[in-house]
Amino acid sequence: MNIKQLAATIYQKRSFLCVGLDTDPDKLPAGFANTAQDIIRFNKEMIEATLDHAVAYKINTAFYEAMGIKGWQIMEETLAAIPDTHFSIADAKRGDIGNTAAQYARTFFETYPFDSVTVAPYMGKDSIQPFLDYTDKTTIVLGLTSNKGADDFERLQLTGGQQLYEKVLTTVAGWGSPDNLMFVVGATQAAALQNIRKLIPEHFLLVPGVGAQGGTVEEVAAAGWAPNCGLLINVSRGVIYASKEDDYLQAARLAAKGYQEQMASAFK
Ligand SMILES: O=C(O)c1cc(=O)[nH]c(=O)n1[C@@H]1O[C@H](COP(=O)(O)O)[C@@H](O)[C@H]1O
């Protein structure tokens, strides 16, 4: 699925919810063991439970890479369980010199055929270009992240008054198009969203940080709305760990439904 198809799905479902499959074996409900089979089962159940309310799924590769070879198998089978009707994201936050970046792009666009991958901009254009070369895929570049450390570098004031993340957004925007390039902006950074929309009025934003990190759908939608919605809000823990009891699937479905209903009211 590409960004245009994602936008059409968002309008059709009145939802811009991405469910984050940050599956931590230590947080599984009772009855699940730390085995590939059980973790795959949990992920498949989560996808099924939230399918109606979500438009995308984000697999944070860290949670799977930490498990070793088993994790890559789980990731592969989880990706295969995401239907074509939903946008898939490999949240891998890669970035390296060109020939290495080309291997990362191959990993997440070919070996594991995700629709999109997250990329760090620190190493500049040749570290991002190999991802953009896959014109039918989406490259998602970190802009202003949700964490406290965003102040350390991203908000650094450059000569002339611009902050570093602003420079990243406007420069990287010139390397791709709103059809194959998105930016990450944390929901905890809602106060900066209006300014960000002035800099990049059309690009889709992947917005994590709603739920466990304290961001809200309302604030993000009010400040970050674009003509094509332009928002994809990710919630991970707030959905997949909504309950650890027997009702974990019902709770995940209800949490996703609740977020979707908040999103529906943002459509004009
Ligand atoms: O790129 C990301 O997805 C990301 C960027 C960011 O600035 N902040 C952030 O939380 N994320 C990811 O979004 C997810 C947030 O998870 P929850 O806080 O559990 O909803 C995690 O997978 C994070 O790694």
From TrEMBL:
Every Orotidine 5'-phosphate decarboxylase domain range: 16-252
EC number per UniProt: 4.1.1.23
GO terms under biological process: 'de novo' pyrimidine nucleobase biosynthetic process; 'de novo' UMP biosynthetic process
Substrates-to-products reaction catalysed: orotidine 5'-phosphate + H(+) = UMP + CO2
Gene Ontology terms for molecular function: orotidine-5'-phosphate decarboxylase activity
Record's keyword terms, sorted: Decarboxylase, Lyase, Pyrimidine biosynthesis
Record-stated family: Belongs to the OMP decarboxylase family. Type 2 subfamily.
Protein name per its UniProtKB record: Orotidine-5'-phosphate decarboxylase
Organism annotation: Arachidicoccus rhizosphaerae
